[in-house]
Task: structure prediction
Amino acid sequence: MPDHDIFADAVARLDAAFQHADIDQEAVQRLKQPKQILEVSIPVRMDDGSLRVFTGYRVRHDDSLGPTKGGIRYHPNVSLPEVKALAFWMTFKCAVAGLPFGGGKGGVIVNPKELSPLELERMTRRFVELIADFIGPETDIPAPDVYTNAMIMGWMMDEYSTIHRRRTPDVITGKPIPLGGSLGRDDATGRGAYLCIKELEAKRHWKPSETRIAVQGFGNAGQHVSRLLHADGYRIVAVSDSKGGIHKAEGLDVPSLIRVKNESRVLQAVYCEGSVCEAVQSDVITNEELLELDVDLLIPAALEDQITKENAARIQAPVIVEVANGPTTGEADDILNRDGKLVVPDILANAGGVTVSYFEWVQNRCGDSWTVEEVHKRLEKCMSREFNAVNSMMQEKRIDMRTAAYVVGLNRIGAAIASQGTARFFAHK
Ligand code: NAD
Result:
């Protein structure tokens, strides 16, 4: 559990951006609180016959640009401030990505690794039953997040469709392909970050073979960005997961790492099993050490609050691309900016996932299915357009890239609010 109010920290970023944005002060005041919060208790019959009651949340932060959109996280550290912060980031991510969506998020306080598959399915279906009137294809559309996946999205879609007595694939994205999932959704977050890095490569004239990269978090997002960069010849010198990390100055063999990690579920297997360990020939490092390595690019792709005021001054990487949501605290941001680091912020760098989720929703709503090439082409167009929009704002206003991304988001949300007319937004009698 973070030792500071993560939501307050997230919202504080608006004040810096507001000075440069074209939006009404009252609209910003409104954006400092979520629109709706739902908290539910989820009773679940366990396999041994006992009962456990889990707590779940769904938060809709703002829907000025469209239905709220955002993932559902299963994690023991889920808390309401965290879900509110994640919903807030979704509002700005969707705005920065140019999508017709607002921001939402959900979570259940649970360690899914402790549940059997049947217990996990029962808990998931019960959670959907409890939030079934809160979500919907035109109001609030969930997706996967940490420790939830396509299979869980499939159960959610099935449960929602059963409750509403009609097939509703557009209520949830990140589904398995046979249930209406989109090709290209599985690696979309990693690919979006990769496309941002390709923009940086062109602007900064990086040579992949000379560019050393450390990746914290080797789950869905971390693995795909590592795989794509490795295929282009980049040197991924360190990766880690919740149990620790590995480092190899000459660069790791990413495809082998992915195979071993996915067979064994933990990176530990890579350095604990003799034969693989010898093949990889890497040093074991902690997550803290990974963040402070002498590398050219650092990719936090695990959880929030990893770069804090305690370690920010020790970060050596000149460029940080935030694949995780909220990996850098506000205080750490000030230190990184002071030290001249370039931080490509989460609301831009990890927007590939929600962009392809939007493609999935569009395909579901018109009964279409696109080829993976079509998805990649559209994603590339979006990421390049929005990376350059934020980059231009950063240069024009002479501000850091995170503030620039918030300015772009605030301008778009502000324009939508102004177009609605302020009476509906600020109803006062
Ligand atoms: P995931 O569950 O697939 O993987 C998370 C990884 O982080 C795992 O390898 C886990 O072992 C590791 N991890 C957990 N705690 C850690 C710690 N303290 N130190 C180092 N590693 C740790 O999750 P994911 O989908 O890859 O998401 C990772 C981050 O990316 C999250 O912040 C998530 O919100 C963000 N994100 C994901 C998507 C998506 O589409 N998957 C989209 C946008 C943002």
Observations:
- Residues 144-147, 189, 216-222, 240-242, 287, 301-303, 323-325, 350, 353 surround nicotinamide-adenine-dinucleotide (CB under 6 Å).
- The chain has 17 helices and twelve strands.
- The first helix runs from residue 6 to 18.
